[in-house]
Specification:
Helix content: over 70%
Number of domains: 1
Number of helices: 4
Oligomer: single chain
């Protein structure tokens, strides 16, 4: 694995760990834990899906394949539903801020890295087609 490919993999691993800890806190009932349900869905099934998408992106190679980049971006967006800027207004923000900031940094690093890799891959393909 190239050093540049480790950045999105590290961000995905960070999101997997953060979401696993939150899911464990939910099951254990250890405060602060996420609510069991939010208006659109139950949080445990959502975290399970978010974890599985992040793991799939990690296996596909977030820096080496189009499918891996797409899955990585979806994983980052799903993580932002749990750790996004809306959490600044959460009543328990004082208790969850490390996870919120860590999730935001990991998600933003992942999205930025995958978008840059996607652009450089398209540019290389266009340059190769012109030759």
């Amino acid at each position: 694995m190239k050093p540049a490919d480790r950045i999105p993999s590290a961000a995905l691993a960070s999101l997997i760990i953060l979401q696993s800890v939150m899911l464990s806190a939910l099951y254990a009932g250890v405060p602060p834990h996420p609510p069991e349900a939010i208006p659109l869905f139950g949080i445990a099934p959502f975290l399970g899906l978010a974890l599985s998408v992040a793991a799939a992106a990690l296996i596909l190679g977030p820096g080496s394949s189009h499918a891996g980049r797409c899955a990585g971006c979806v994983a980052a967006l799903m993580a932002l539903l749990s750790f996004g800027p809306q959490k600044y207004f959460d009543a328990q923000f004082a208790l969850i801020w490390p996870a919120v900031l860590g999730g935001q940094v990991a998600s933003l690093v992942l999205i930025a890295n995958l978008v840059m890799k996607g652009r450089s891959g398209r540019e290389a393909a266009v340059a190769g087609a012109k030759s």
